[in-house]
């Protein structure tokens, strides 16, 4: 198991000087104080077109942390992570894997919805490296406070932000990742990717995703205090 580096904003002193949310992290933060400061975050331009900051949610010392990419349209409107179609599928798959979402802290690498208009719809856009770098101090602070025993990255954006830019979900999904962010860590695909999978292949893709989540569930049980 290769030990990965912390990446992007996590250990980026140059970034801390400007252009990231690092300067907004309060001294001796709590999840409540982080959430409150993040509500006014302007570290990158995404706040301009988003309804609100969508901060992570879950128990303060959740044994499991799930990290996605960015809030989507529903999340932006409701102000909670993973409550839209991808979140509903995630909930079903967690249940199938024997994981209670209520025991997980759920967050995203980037905390504002990035979108472009397509007719009446708001089409999700992938955050760029600058936006990711600007936002990761929030996620780093969440991880430092929650101290999850098991950390799961959902999709390539989260996997690369957490485990380094060389990480490839296509090759490394489901495998244990050695990181100083958590005793157990792994990455899998993003549930949105499952929703985009061709009908004929979707059931198999979902089974594979549930298998990855079962690995996280086993790590949770092994590590249970
Ligand atoms: N996709 C994500 O990565 N996060 C959400 O909160 C919703 C959809």
What does it look like?
With 225 residues, the chain is α/β, with parallel strands linked by helices. The protein has helices spanning 13-16, 31-38, 73-78, 85-96, 129-146, 156-163, 169-172, 191-196, 199-223; strands at residues 64-68, 104-108, 115-118, 121-124, 150-154, 184-188. The longest helix is centred in the C-terminal third of the chain and has 25 residues, at 199-223. Residues 2-17 have low confidence and may be disordered. Uracil binds at residues 68-72, 75, 81-82, 84, 86-87, 108, 192.
Short description:
The protein is of the alpha/beta class and 225 residues long. Helix content is 40%, strand content 12%.
List the helices and strands and how they pair.
Blueprint: H1 13-16, H2 31-38, E1 64-68, H3 73-78, H4 85-96, E2 104-108, E3 115-118, E4 121-124, H5 129-146, E5 150-154, H6 156-163, H7 169-172, E6 184-188, H8 191-196, H9 199-223
Parallel strand pairs: 1-2, 1-5, 5-6
Antiparallel strand pairs: 3-4
The structure holds uracil (URA).
Residues 68-72, 75, 81-82, 84, 86-87, 108, 192 line the site of uracil.
Q: Strand-residue fraction?
A: 5-15%
N- and C-termini, Cα separation: 24 Å
Q: How would a textbook summarize the main sheet?
A: 4 strands, parallel
Q: In DSSP terms, counting alpha (H) and pi (I) runs of 4 or more, how many helices? A: 9
Return residue spans where pLDDT drops below 50 for at least 5 consecutive residues. 2-17
Give the beta-strand count. Answer: 6
Oligomerization state: single chain
- The helix-strand sequence is HHEHHEEEHEHHEHH
| Ligand inventory | uracil
Say what the CATH topology is.
Answer: Uracil-DNA Glycosylase, subunit E
Global structural class: alpha/beta
CATH architecture: 3-Layer(aba) Sandwich
Average pLDDT number: 92
Name the CATH class.
Alpha Beta
Rg estimate, integer Å: 16 Å
Biggest sheet, strands in spatial order?
Answer: 2-1-5-6
CATH H level: which superfamily? Uracil-DNA glycosylase-like domain
- What is the 3D shape? globular
- How helical, in percent, are the residues? 40-55%
| Number of spatially distinct domains | 1
């Amino acid at each position: 198991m290769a030990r990965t580096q912390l990446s992007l904003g996590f250990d980026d002193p140059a970034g801390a000087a400007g252009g990231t949310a690092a300067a907004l992290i309060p001294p001796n933060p709590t999840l409540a104080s982080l959430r409150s400061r993040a509500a006014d975050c302007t570290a990158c331009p995404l706040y301009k077109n988003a309804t609100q900051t969508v901060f992570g949610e879950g128990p303060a010392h959740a044994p499991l942390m799930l990290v996605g990419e960015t809030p989507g349209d529903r999340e932006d409107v409701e102000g909670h992570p993973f409550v839209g179609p991808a979140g509903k599928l995630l909930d079903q798959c967690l249940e199938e894997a024997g994981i209670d979402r209520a025991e997980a802290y759920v967050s995203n690498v980037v905390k504002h919805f990035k979108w472009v208009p397509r007719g009446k719809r708001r089409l999700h856009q992938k955050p760029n490296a600058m936006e990711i770098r600007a936002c990761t101090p929030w996620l780093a602070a969440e991880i430092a406070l929650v101290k999850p025993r098991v950390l799961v990255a959902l999709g390539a954006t989260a996997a690369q932000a957490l485990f380094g830019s060389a990480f490839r979900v296509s090759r490394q999904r489901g495998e244990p990742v050695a990181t100083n962010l958590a005793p157990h860590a792994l990455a899998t695909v993003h549930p949105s990717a499952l929703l985009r999978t061709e009908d004929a292949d979707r059931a198999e893709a979902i089974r594979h995703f549930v298998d990855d989540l079962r690995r996280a569930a086993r790590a949770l049980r092994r590590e249970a205090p």
